[in-house]
Design a protein that fits this description.
Layout lengths: L3 E15 L9 E2 L2 E4 L13 E3 L13 E3 L4 E5 H10 L14 E4 L12 E3 L5 E7 L4 H10 L7 H5 L5 E7 L1 E4 L3 E7 L7
Parallel strand pairs: 6-7
Antiparallel strand pairs: 1-2, 1-7, 1-12, 3-11, 4-5, 6-10, 8-9, 8-12, 9-10
Amino acid sequence: MPVLRETEFTGEIVWLGHVQAGQSIRASAVPEMSLGFAGAAGERHEGVNRSSCVRMKNLYPQGTEIRNVRQLSVLSEDEMQATAAEMGLDALDPSYLGVSILLRGIPDFTHVPPSSRLQGPDGVTITVDMENRPCVIPGREVESDLPGHGAAFKPAAKGRRGVTAWVERPGVLKLGDRMKLFVPDQRAWAP
């Protein structure tokens, strides 16, 4: 019996971004993205392993080598638009947020269960790690182009920052591709 259940939801890729290694989190729009087991080549978050960051400090000393489950940042277009509206903006450029994949069509996207899968047309599959909590770094990118709006990002993005993900099966994603959502076939934890 499969442990992942295909849902009725698919997300259309409406934006793809490349965040250059060694630079800010600002992404450059690209028409397609080739993904290997280490993520996208030349990206800031490329790698099978990574050094633990402040988000993992309750588990490991900062800098400990761990599995890289933050290869990709995946967001919902609807949630990003809601964040923009709360910030007093008509729109929010995904490049400011370091977006790898921007999807349209999956409701409450930031809260899809960890271990869910998104599968593209050629079989490329990414695994959702967990919710990507908002931080101040994207706000700095917003502030550099839209003075007076950067500090509003973190509170406005709460519960709408999307998810981090890693590549389970390599392949290529293109603008307009549809990704099928599969979720774990288990009940919610109830201790």
